[in-house]
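Hi team,

As requested, here is the filled-out complex form for the 3,4-dihydroxyphenylalanine run. I kept the field names the same as last time so the parser does not choke. Let me know if anything looks off before we queue the next batch.

— J.
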Amino acid sequence: MSEVDSLKIRLEALQTEALAAFAAAGNLNDLQQLRVQYLGKRGALTEVLKGVGKLPPADRPVIGQHVNRTKAALATALEQSEAELAVKARAVRIEAERIDVTLSGRTAACGALHPVQQGLDEMTAIFSQMGFAVAEGPEIEDEFHNFDALNIPPEHPARAMHDTFFIKDSGDEPMLLRTHTSPVQIRAMKRFLSEAGEPPLAVVAPGRVYRCDYDVTHSPMFHQVEVFKVDHDVSMAHLKGVLRHFFSAYFEKNVPIRLRPHYFPFTEPSAEVDIGCVFCAGKGCRICKGSGWLEVLGSGMIHPNVLKSVGIDTGKFSGFAFGLGVERLVMLKQGIPDLRLFFENDVRFLRRMGVTK
Ligand code: DAH
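And here is what came back:
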């Protein structure tokens, strides 16, 4: 067999082998390796070419053509395999990344206002709609605003360490965590008078208060809303009218109220206010202990000493005031049995309350 023929046979064998290998390649990486193996600088085709140099010059063009054809055939086959593998790879990737668009999405957990805050906002809004201006005061108070200006005598039990959180202060005056929102009466009256000079003034003051207490119905921190109005000829009738409107608005139904004589140092006369039991409509149940009434707040006509402490002329002006416990009203409205639920922050409870708004 001539040298030329033997080279031709080698070329054909090489082509057959290479095409089979390309077709069998499983991925683009393998294919790249095969390209090097057959068409690379030190590849199989180059190896064959070395034999061409040894041929007599007349034979070289013939075999040269064969080599070129083989080269072209391999290149085309490579390209085709490459394209096929690319399509396959893409299909595999798409399959792997498949998204089930029919699944429900992951919703971001969204917070809600705490039920006590919701109650505070609701109550404040009702008074604000009646024309009361919203005021706030400091939670760290002095004795003057928390006690003295409110006509609370030095021997009053609330002034004892076991009832009130006193704060040791380096200054002369002892400070305390306010025990009620009533000191805002004093602060708001002073501020208002310095701006407007004279009543009328009507204020709602929501906020946090503190007492040394902890059981099923008491927490060392709780919330109150203080409401008061000072004007010419303000009477108990105004107090009762405002309360009636408030309770009906808050409970979203007609709620009967009654005032019982009571004593508070900062009001004269004073009254405790009961509402008809919202659970049994006054018939008597476990919650109202059979009485048909629920005690909800303290109220009265602002004591002349309180008005005098901020320089209001008690000959010309009078006022009513009341203070209510926010937690208690929210419990009554939402049917919450234990005050401590508000402060444990169990998300199951908070979630149930969060959707009530
Ligand atoms: N400050 C009282 C308390 O915390 C509640 C209160 C009673 C407020 C009578 C008032 C009022 O304004 O007139 O127990």
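Two things worth flagging: Residues 180, 182, 226, 264, 267, 298-300, 321-323 surround 3,4-dihydroxyphenylalanine (CB under 6 Å). Residues 52 and 183 are 110 Å apart (CA to CA).

Thanks,
J.
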